[in-house]
């Protein structure tokens, strides 16, 4: 379980998160929606210890992000898939996926490569293992990014607007992979602007605005029985 307890985040005088509290249950897919600048990406970066919180606490499987001795373990358990791929350009797809398992998890090269090939096959890229990022499309690079995160055997998968930096025609292939993972019971926190995709895969939906959590509801209530007019307008706008 991931627990967020009254979290604030400031950049100087700019407050980007304000008194955010919620829980994410194991085995659930939670979509985080909201307008640009709502603090969605900052929140999941705080979960992954990529950003320091200013107040409150975040606990990942009982471990506090405030405990610096736990940072490495928390990051093992909360693999992140980034908006802009962040692949190493000098490494092949296979090399990008096996780097952390061999260095951090101390897996043998053979073990890491076997797992990497299994993951590449899962996303339809087993024939691109020896290709470098520059030789891959945006959709292919993002699928490699997902494989890299999964290679760490995380308990929680954090996805930050993973389709926003790729061409629209490439979006479907990435969303298919995420939907398959959701169907397998992978715990995911998904920051996305793909509202119809969120409707299909999410168990719960959090809506954020101006750094605050406005709603955290089961998906059926959020999409089909929404009583908050502001959220209802947002859903209707994003449909079009």
Structure report:
The structure is a single chain. Helix 3 packs across helix 4 (109-122), helix 3 (93-103) packs parallel to helix 5 and helix 5 runs parallel beside helix 6. The two termini are 34 Å apart. The longest helix has 16 residues, at 168-183. The protein has helices at residues 40-47, 71-77, 93-103, 109-122, 138-150, 168-183, 195-201, 219-224, 229-239; strands at residues 2-11, 14-24, 29-33, 55-60, 63-64, 78-81, 156-160, 188-191, 204-209, 212-218. With 240 residues, it is of the alpha/beta class.
Nutshell version of this structure?
The protein has helices at residues 40-47, 71-77, 93-103, 109-122, 138-150, 168-183, 195-201, 219-224, 229-239, and strands spanning 2-11, 14-24, 29-33, 55-60, 63-64, 78-81, 156-160, 188-191, 204-209, 212-218. It has 240 residues and is α/β, with parallel strands linked by helices.
DSSP E strands, number: 10
The best one-word shape is globular
Low-confidence stretches: none
Order of strands across the widest beta sheet? Answer: 6-7-8-3-9-10
Sheet/helix structural class: alpha/beta
Oligomeric composition of the shown chains? single chain
What's the story with the biggest beta sheet?
6 strands, mixed
Number of helices: 9
Give the N-to-C terminal Cα separation: 34 Å
**Helix proportion:** 25-40%
Helix/strand order, N-terminal first = EEEHEEHEHHHEHEHEEHH
Strand content: 25-35%
**Chain-averaged pLDDT:** 88
